[in-house]
Amino acid sequence: MPPVIIRPARPDEHSALCVLFAELDRFHREVRPDVFVEPDGPARSPELIAGLIAGPDRTILVADDGGVLAGLATLVEKTIPANPVRPERRIVEIDNLVVMPRHRRRGIAGLLLRRAEDWARGRGLASLELGVWEFNTGAVACYEAAGFAPTTRRLSKPVAP
Question: Which of 72, 93, 94, 106 has the fewest CB atoms nearer than 10 Å to its CB?
Fold first, then answer.
């Protein structure tokens, strides 16, 4: 079996990318239907995907498994503005990461994360950051195994309307 190749996505892969995003969306919708809903049309237009791919401050990395897209990571360079007690920070945020179920447990997420590190390092940035839902215990374990550690914690509380 040839190795999985991590590479930038191409605009002509819009349909395959949408399948990957749909898997991510489905998972979140099933667990938190109060937050995530089924879209009334395409969730990500060709223009949106092309904009993510075109950069220069963003990209979509894909895991190419013999011509089949097995996973993706969406990376966005961000500037966190300074305030009186904190200097400005430039980071790379991993906005989305998904590996299709039949490709899991093969180290593909780890490969995507290492390539995300390379992408950040290539821009002179020293930090990768991400948000992960507490219910997504598999993702939390994956990120921790890759060296990520909590820095903040966001809490919510429903209130009566």
Answer: 106
- Tens of pLDDT, residue by residue over 139-148, are 999 999 999 9
* Average pLDDT estimate for 131-150: 93
Q: What is this structure's pTM?
A: 0.91
